[in-house]
Amino acid sequence: RRLLQARRPAAATGVLYTPERLQSRATSRPAVASPAAASPLSCSTPDGCSKPGGSFTAWAAAPMVARVRTLKPAEVNTAIDWAEAEGWSPGLADAGPFLAADPGAFLGAFVNGALVGCISLALHSDSSAFLGFFIVLAEHRRKAHGAALMSAALSRAGGRVVGLDGVQEQVGRYEGLGFRRAYLNVRMGGPVTPEVIASLRAQSDSQIGVMPYEVGFIHALERFEEVGPLFPAHRPNFLRAWLGSEGHYGAVAFKTGILSGYGVIRPTRRGAFRVGPLFAADARMASALLVCLLSQVPVGTTVLIDVPEPNEPAMTLMRSIGLAPVFDCVRMYAGAPPVLDLQRTFAITTCEFG
């Protein structure tokens, strides 16, 4: 069993988001193509977003007590520490792949030189972005720092469709910004036991071949994700880092010689392991992949799997091996939701980066 450290990514170039820059970008920002009945990205309060009807420009013009800039790699680790403190269970090596996907994704709010809040806005493509890691330290809330962070993040998004996974109590605020509910992602959790492995074996297909991931599979995995698709953007930099990071164990599934699924398991900071993504043609293939992945961790270890609720066979499979809901997040989009193959998505990659 390996307990492994995250790699140190290359330093990111800092970008300072001044009130003038945000105001200029907000004024010229293209309208987001929203679904019917969706409002533009908006907020009526500088640090609340509890009511719709405001404008993005009003957010950008909110009092900017904090200085907002791109976080350096060491500061990104601080943001991930905060996510751990919030109970989100990030992985040990998450920082490296996140920065490989978008080196400028993480923004921080600073007061008198001290980091008081963070947010991430990952630019996955020219049309797709994902928002996460929105945290302001408790003693600095209700002081417009959250507004400064959100303004900077949405300004960075440009005209892209923006996704996020929001906790239930914050959904109203995100709706005030023009985000609309798509579906639930449910975190299922429980211990890995011999009975769990046996149950998965019984539910798998003997015609499916599963083997550990090797770097030679990367191009096939990239093509596999594009069919459906399983993710709204081509993400080669992220996949290479995600599958190659220390502590991350990948497994690939073949049927009739064709790569038809894969999954990744990684350690978290408190000893649990998270599975994600888990892409498979059906529940029998997902079971075969889980046998391989869960066999890598000690008996009794807690496993956490974020499952899209619309995939009923996935939810049924998780319950059949004794996993129970830990919490859920609402997947939301500002703009037209991407068309994704949720029936082959037995676990999303992350709630933080999409």
Q: Would you kindly provide a written description of the structure presented here, covering whatever features stand out?
A:
The protein has 354 residues and is α+β, with helices and mostly antiparallel strands. The chain has 11 helices and 14 strands. Strand 3 and strand 4 form a beta hairpin. Helix 4 packs antiparallel against helix 9 and helix 7 packs antiparallel against helix 10. 48% of the residues are buried.
Succession of helices and strands: EHHEHHEEEHEHEHEHHEEEHEHEE
What share of residues is helical? 25-40%
Please, how many helices?
11
Shape: globular
Which segments are poorly predicted (pLDDT under 50) over 5 or more consecutive residues?
1-13, 18-62
Mean pLDDT equals 85
Secondary-structure topology with pairs:
Layout: E1 16-17, H1 19-28, H2 56-60, E2 67-70, H3 73-85, H4 95-101, E3 106-111, E4 114-123, E5 128-136, H5 145-157, E6 161-167, H6 171-176, E7 180-191, H7 194-203, E8 209-212, H8 218-226, H9 236-244, E9 249-255, E10 258-267, E11 273-279, H10 283-294, E12 302-308, H11 312-320, E13 324-334, E14 345-347
Parallel strand pairs: 5-6, 11-12
Antiparallel strand pairs: 1-2, 2-3, 3-4, 4-5, 6-13, 7-12, 7-13, 8-9, 9-10, 10-11, 11-14
Task: Tag the structure with descriptive keywords.
354 residues, alpha+beta, 14-stranded mixed sheet, 11 helices, globular
